[in-house]
Design a protein that fits this description.
Layout: E1 29-33, H1 38-47, E2 53-57, H2 67-80, E3 87-91, H3 100-111, E4 115-120, H4 126-143, E5 150-155, H5 158-162, H6 164-168, E6 174-179, H7 181-188, E7 203-205, E8 219-221, H8 226-237, E9 242-245, H9 254-267, E10 272-274, H10 278-287, H11 291-303, E11 311-313, E12 316-318, H12 320-339, H13 341-347
This protein binds glyoxylic acid and magnesium ion.
Glyoxylic acid binds near residues 154, 156, 183 and 246.
């Protein structure tokens, strides 16, 4: 048993105090880059303003002989480049790998004041988070950091799914989780080689028509990820952390990507990974609320200033609960409008929302 008072004590002498609330910033896309590639480093000034989060990937997709170069490239980006309001994250190597200790040590010591979130892959249970929690505290103390780094767990093993709730509660550092369909499919022995999305073989079919047993039967693809994504959303939001959908591997299939991203958005995810510049616009479109929905939500809030009672607006029943749904929509729209003048205009917020960074 751990005393509730201890959750907000630093885990190392002189480490910064744990955060009480997870900051909710624009988080529509976590854009993955490999900084062992000089060309990608050179593109940072162009890409950073287009994305909410830029992530230096050190894990899968980085070949073994480029692991150290990817880490060094990320340190260079952190030290030398001004990313403006765009957050800098990393995905370190998995905890069982020979690289992760140096990943965490070097990154915290060199650019711990620039990195906001460390993504930990293949998290299986709270023990993985406890290990990283203490290690980060020791490193933060050594580096003299004033603000703690946050932890983002990738949900990509069957054990991780089983232990979701305990992972979410394992540390005050838990910023959120991402859904990793490729590793999760492998871990569960699912018979798919796709990275996210549906599968033509996973479907339902209507009963035969008794009048015409040979007629074609309507059949539809189903979403193989629904159960786990929904559980991830509950586990995260119940502790004030943020759920994200992960990668969509078929880069040419923009419509499939948009459909997968939108399903996760409707379930409660705040963003997704973008693996290619072409996916940035898709994430931006999907994870920014639709202007028509925002207009309707504003109408409801204006019509019911105290959020109580039952009302009919445009033929739809509104009550205390729908008022809260509208607040979720409008608050997100306001936050994104502060960052994005085009969205501010689409939402009709030009004159009501202060520019980002403005002080009251
Ligand atoms: C992501 O890391 C995945 O395994 O899908
Ligand atoms: Mg993975």
């Amino acid at each position: 048993m751990r005393s509730p008072r201890d959750f907000f004590k630093p885990l190392a002498i002189d480490a910064p105090e744990p955060v009480r609330e997870i900051p909710f910033k624009p988080s529509r896309m976590i854009h993955f880059l490999d900084f062992s590639n000089e060309k990608m480093v050179a593109k940072v000034p162009e890409i950073a303003p287009q994305v909410d989060i830029l992530l230096g990937n050190l894990e899968d997709a980085i070949p073994v002989d480029r692991k150290e170069a990817a880490r060094a490239g990320l340190i260079r980006v952190g030290r030398e480049m001004d990313l403006g309001e765009t957050a800098l994250w990393t995905r370190v190597n998995e905890l069982a790998s020979p690289w992760v200790l140096d990943d965490l040590t070097e990154l915290v010591m060199e650019i711990g004041d620039k990195l906001e979130v460390v993504m930990i892959p293949k998290v299986e249970g709270p023990w993985d988070i406890h290990y990283v929690d203490r290690l980060l505290a020791q490193l933060e103390a050594k580096a003299g950091l004033e603000r703690p780094l946050l932890i983002h767990a990738i949900l990509e093993t069957a054990q991780g799914v089983i232990n979701l709730e305990e992972i979410a509660c394992a540390s005050a550092r838990i910023q959120g989780m991402s859904f990793g369909p490729a590793d999760l499919a492998a871990s569960r022995r699912m018979k798919t080689t796709r990275v996210g999305g549906g599968h033509p073989g996973y479907r339902t079919i209507a009963d035969p028509d008794p009048e015409d047993p040979d007629a074609p039967r309507p059949s539809y693809q189903q979403d193989p990820w629904h159960y786990s994504i929904a559980r991830m959303v509950d586990a995260c939001t119940s502790v004030g952390a943020l759920p994200f959908y992960g990668p969509y591997g078929d880069i040419r299939d923009a419509e499939g990507c948009e459909t997968q991203f939108r399903a996760s958005f409707l379930l409660g995810c705040v963003g997704a990974w973008t693996l290619h510049p072409g996916q940035i616009a898709i994430a931006k479109k999907v994870y920014s609320p639709d202007p028509e929905e925002v207009a309707f939500a504003r109408k409801v809030i204006e019509a019911i200033p105290d959020g109580r009672g039952v009302h009919m607006i445009d033929g739809k029943m509104q009550d205390d609960a729908t008022w809260k749904q509208c607040q979720v929509m409008v608050k997100l729209a306001e936050m994104l409008a502060r960052k994005d003048p085009e969205l501010a205009q689409a939402y009709g917020f030009e004159r009501t929302v202060e520019p980002a960074g403005a002080t009251a």
